[in-house]
Design brief:
heterodimer; A: 564 residues; 4 strands; B: 159 residues; 2 domains; five-stranded mixed β-sheet
């Protein structure tokens, strides 16, 4: 296949990609530390932590923004910067790539400083009328704009390749990365409108009031496709790498392409399913977003089949017999195939993440779980499950290729996903079970509901809060092991002679390779997506504008009196 | 596309249609709905509870940093309450334990849901959207008594 083999990146691009992985890894670890502290706060074990102080909600903001927005965006850009030149055999424009990286870094640092200074304790959803410092919003804008610049850098490469390779299929990894960033671009336009035209001028004092429901609606226009922006790079790695790592083939190339096109079509017109319990939006429009959410579950179900079929092919090739024998022949514990463990463990977690996600999307059923601890239980089985593990494995692989290192402590590296899987399963079970009996999310329960001396004490919730502490501690241990092996690799001696040495990726070849002529062009799918978005969001925005009254002055989290 | 793949695709589609059918069944046959857009209600800033029929009440509840008003609501068993909820300041959340009632309280908008209390007891509601420093202390409760007579001191104001 044309995208097999190796490729020479320039030294500048290699350095950039290393920076785009190492700095977010440090930020990720700060966020993960925050996560551990939050489980302890929630159980009432601590009332203050030595680094971030006694403000649970400040730590929670840092945890959410650094882990779910900063780390993920950087990794998606680094993966694109790696796989697109590699698959198209074309070098990146390194000046534009660096400009994008610098925008993202400056933005993340600005937003990070504001959070650490306690000037942006608004959680990662930054719902008004809680107001953050203007620099927090500016930082987020720079991060997003930087990721757009990275995408715009790839578009001319893609178009040039298509001109020069008429009649050939675009390499699957490129299709996957473009799907990721097409979804991202469409989705982030709405949050850019929210920030630039509503929150930033209001935070600066140029406008007095903001329409809270409109801001929430624009946020969730972005907020759900954001989920696919996390998930799709993991899908790219499942489709591109997993079968190769297991000595097999990707079961169907066409199914993979169909999946990506379905994500282009259905990722965005679904956001209102996060607002089922909101006022000012007609329930019939909520139901339509619910139907589209089921439609977007379809590509994930197809993925489940294709990946399982690919693994079965691999397992049988490796000597697996009988109906289930192939399952035991996969390279779960082969040190040289450590990357496999990151992908397979995530897939197992995602079975439960996906099921709980369908529960959330199921309209009336959402009444039972909305904003309860079930929700963080669920998304730790998605973004903090398959996505995190695939991104950690991918980060380790990319850094070893771009810095010319061999992965150190491979046995430990290999064990991380399994330890983490145990931890996150326990954690999420506790959170979800607690959520079903009414335990709220985003709440410092340790200071009230989990405190036996408080009049609000809820003894029924205690076992589940304590279980989530046990899971959280195990998750933290897994990440500490990962960070040690990651930096042991980064600081080890280089194994390559020259800085521009070739790099390679384990790209799978397809078992069934159909022409799939109708899946070769993004354009019709983008047009369908835009039509669905217009149809599904026009009535929602109309309802919001029609039925809300008055605007909201800005508030600080510390006082019930508005700031002006 | 080979046979097994077509089968998987068909089964996936059928599963999703089944789920969707369950939602429609719950909505149409069981009348379980999610909040909708309320346009026939005047904005309110103070809490009010009044009786609208033998077993029916209307409750206008206000969420604010960091309390629900009213924070304790006493009602006889078998009561159906038309609950209207809004916020005076920032966004809050409202969920009653053991009842499928879950609402966002958003400033500038009125949310609505109907709830029936069939069993006597205490039902806690806790704010579930981050609303500032004392968010975790923002809670209240419904006290459902065996009494069948309405509890008059509870009626804040009669329209």
């Amino acid at each position: 296949m044309d995208n097999a083999g190796t490729f020479r990146f320039t030294k500048s691009v290699k350095n950039l990609n290393s920076v785009l992985i190492i700095i977010p890894m440090v930020l990720l670890f700060i966020g993960v530390y925050g996560g551990l502290m939050q489980t302890l706060f929630r159980a009432g074990i601590i009332q203050s932590d030595p680094f971030m102080g006694g403000d649970y909600y400040k730590g929670l903001t840092i945890h959410g923004v650094l882990n779910a927005i900063v780390f993920t965006t950087f990794f998606a850009v680094a993966l694109g910067n790696a796989l697109i030149p590699y698959s198209l055999k074309m070098n990146l424009n390194s000046k534009v790539a660096w400009a994008s990286g610098i925008l993202m870094l400056v933005g993340s640092i600005l937003a990070g400083l504001m959070m650490v200074m306690g000037e942006a304790t608004v959680l990662y959803t930054f719902y008004p009328p809680l107001k953050a410092h203007p620099l927090f919003y500016i930082g987020l804008v720079l991060l997003v704009v930087g990721s757009w610049v990275a995408f715009f850098n790839w578009i001319p490469m893609y178009l040039k390749w298509r001109r020069e390779n008429k009649g050939e299929k675009t390499p699957l990894a490129v299709v996957g990365m473009f799907t990721t960033f097409i979804v991202w671009l469409i989705a982030t336009i709405s949050v850019a409108v929210e920030i630039l035209f509503m929150l930033l001028p209001w935070s600066l004092g140029l406008v007095d009031e903001v329409n809270v429901m409109l801001a929430r609606t624009l946020f969730w226009f972005f907020g759900h496709p954001l989920v696919y922006f996390w998930l799709l790079p993991a899908y790219v790695m499942y489709y591109s790498f997993l079968s190769k790592l297991a000595d097999g083939r990707l079961y169907s190339d066409m199914a993979a392409r169909l999946v990506f096109m379905l994500f282009v079509v259905f990722s965005v017109p679904v956001g209102t399913h996060h607002q089922y319990m909101d006022p000012a939006i007609g329930s019939q429009w909520k139901l339509i977003h619910g139907i589209f959410t089921f439609a977007v579950a379809l590509p994930s179900l197809i993925t489940a089949f294709t990946i399982a079929a690919s693994l079965e092919y691999s397992g049988r090739k490796r000597g697996g017999k009988g109906l289930f024998g192939w399952i035991f022949k996969l390279p779960y514990f082969e040190k040289d195939k450590w990357f496999f463990s990151y992908l397979i463990a995530g897939l197992v977690i995602f079975i439960f993440g996906g099921i709980s996600g369908i529960v959330n999307a199921s309209y009336q059923m959402n009444t039972v779980v909305h904003n309860t601890a079930w929700i963080p239980g669920h998304f730790h089985l998605t973004v903090a499950g398959p996505v995190l593990l695939a991104f950690l494995g991918g980060s380790m692989y990319l850094i070893s290729q771009f810095m010319g290192k061999s992965v150190k402590m491979k046995g430990w590296t290999l064990s991380v996903p399994y330890i983490y899987t145990i931890g996150v399963s326990i954690f999420s079970w506790g959170m979800m079970r607690g959520g079903l009996i009414g335990m709220p999310r985003r709440t410092n329960t340790g200071a009230s509901y989990a405190n036996p001396e408080s009049i609000l004490y809820q003894p029924d919730w205690m076992p589940y809060i304590d279980i989530s502490v046990i899971g959280g501690v195990i998750m933290f241990i897994a990440i500490v092991i990962y960070i040690v092996t990651f930096f042991a690799t980064v600081f080890s001696k280089s194994i390559v002679e020259e800085p521009e040495a070739e790099v390679s990726f384990p790209i799978s070849e397809p078992l069934h390779n159909e022409p799939a002529l109708w899946l070769r062009n993004f354009k019709p799918y983008i047009i369908i997506a835009l039509i669905l978005i217009a149809l599904s969001y026009t009535p929602v925005i109309y309802d919001v504008l029609q039925s809300t009254y008055g605007g909201s002055l800005p508030y600080s989290p510390d006082s019930p009196v508005p700031l002006r | 596309m080979d046979k097994s793949e077509k089968l998987a695709l068909g089964l996936s589609g059928a599963l999703l249609i089944l789920f969707f059918g369950a939602i429609m069944y719950a909505g149409i046959a069981k009348d379980i709905e999610v909040p909708t857009c309320i346009t026939d209600m005047e904005p309110f800033a103070t809490d009010t509870l009044f009786q609208t029929g033998p077993d029916t009440y209307e409750l206008q509840m206000v969420a604010r940093m960091w309390a629900f008003q009213p924070s304790t609501v006493e009602l006889p068993v078998g009561t159906t309450v038309d609950l209207y909820l809004t916020s005076q300041d920032i966004t809050h959340g409202f969920k009653v334990t053991d009842h499928n009632i879950n609402l966002m309280a958003v400033p500038g908008a009125i949310n609505y849901m109907q709830v029936t209390f069939d069993e006597p007891g205490e039902y806690v509601f806790a704010c579930h959207e981050f609303c500032g420093a004392a968010h975790h202390t923002m809670a209240g409760r419904f006290i459902i008594t065996e009494e069948t007579e309405p509890i008059s001191e509870n009626l804040v104001e009669v329209k």
